[in-house]
Design goal:
mainly alpha, Multidrug-efflux Transporter Regulator, Chain: A, Domain 2, DNA binding, 19 helices
Length: 334
């Protein structure tokens, strides 16, 4: 078969076939009487083998080794191809994500494009200061796509940067809530906690609904953050979790403040006092727990809280008894 016909049947150009011949990859078995290259069936099979290996990403040098080196180990080359392909996919995916985020920012001109690119780079910087400045800039003058802000907020470990990112996300609108809901479902506990902290910064019914979901989650830290936020919003469902926080000594001061705010509603004051008093019976709670409950009861109005404090004023632990007696004195003075 002459070179022109081989080119038509194989899809490999005559020029490339000559290039293969110059490299020693394939040589026509014979020549015609006129001196034209003539390829045998075996030559054509080798051409197809070359093209198949090239389609996997092999260089021509590796193709030659694969076809001619008896010691060649394809498994090693395949592993290397997998690694380099994965690196390329990762890089291309990162580029695609960056382009989509730039498009989502709807820039009006190249200056805005370049500014958005600079902020996106800054969000991924190793410098906490640069990340914080990027978050603040996004919130103030150059809004970044909400996907980029949420991703940064869920991954941020520096507390100062995290605060700036939560603020920026809160200013980006309700579009963040769906993404943050995904953060609440993350397999990583630290991501779930960052998600609930960020949700707490966003006002509105949508964020309240997500906080209610977090209130029933498996993590004490997530439940606690959700309870504090819901308590500040006047949601009574947070009361049991807030009482648990006081008993367990987790952000107990903040939890007591949240309960005090809820107790400003008379309908809730007796309920809250009853929940706190229910954790005291028989002195079974350890003295530090009784002291925290006493301090929490101090800011709860009503008869139930007063009765509990009166019992605590006779507590066997001096610190508990003195604290309860002092609170009762203040109530009497009021």
């Amino acid at each position: 078969m002459l070179i022109g016909e081989v080119a038509r049947r194989s899809g490999v150009s005559a020029r490339m076939l000559r290039h293969y011949e110059s490299l020693g990859l394939v040589s026509p078995t014979g020549r015609t009487g006129s001196g034209y290259r003539e390829y045998s069936g075996e030559d054509i099979r080798r051409i197809f083998h070359i093209e198949s290996l090239r389609s996997l990403g092999l260089s021509l040098r590796d193709v030659a080794r694969a076809l001619d080196d008896p010691a060649f180990r394809p498994s090693e080359l395949v592993e290397e191809l997998i690694r380099t392909t994965q690196e390329r996919i990762t890089a291309e995916t990162a580029l695609l994500t960056r382009l989509r985020r730039i498009g989502a920012a709807e820039p009006d001109g190249w200056e805005e494009v370049l500014h958005t690119v600079a902020l996106l780079h800054a969000l991924g910087s190793d410098s906490p200061g640069r990340r914080q400045r990027a978050a603040l800039a996004s919130a103030d003058t150059a809004p970044l796509p909400v996907e980029a802000l949420v991703e940064a907020a869920l991954g941020e470990t520096d507390p100062n940067v995290a605060g700036a990112l939560r603020w920026a996300v809160a200013r980006s609108g309700d579009g963040a809530l769906e993404l943050l809901a995904g953060g609440l479902a993350s397999a990583a506990a630290e991501v779930r906690e960052r998600a609930v902290r960020t949700i707490a910064e966003i006002p509105g019914d949508g964020s309240t609904a997500l906080l209610r979901t977090a209130l029933n989650g498996p993590d004490a830290a997530v439940r606690g953050q959700a309870a504090l936020a819901l308590g500040a919003r006047g949601v009574a469902d947070a009361i049991p979790a807030l009482v648990d926080m006081i008993v367990e000594g987790r952000n107990d001061v903040e939890a007591a403040d949240a309960l005090s705010g809820l107790a400003s509603r008379p309908a809730l004051a007796e309920r809250i006092a009853g929940k706190l008093a229910a954790r005291l019976p028989g002195g079974s709670a350890a003295p530090p727990v009784r002291l925290r409950l006493t301090q929490a009861l101090a800011d709860i109005p009503g008869a139930t809280a007063r009765r509990a404090l009166t019992d605590l004023a006779r507590d066997e632990d001096p610190a508990v008894a003195l604290t309860a007696a002092y609170v009762l004195t203040l109530r009497g003075a009021g």
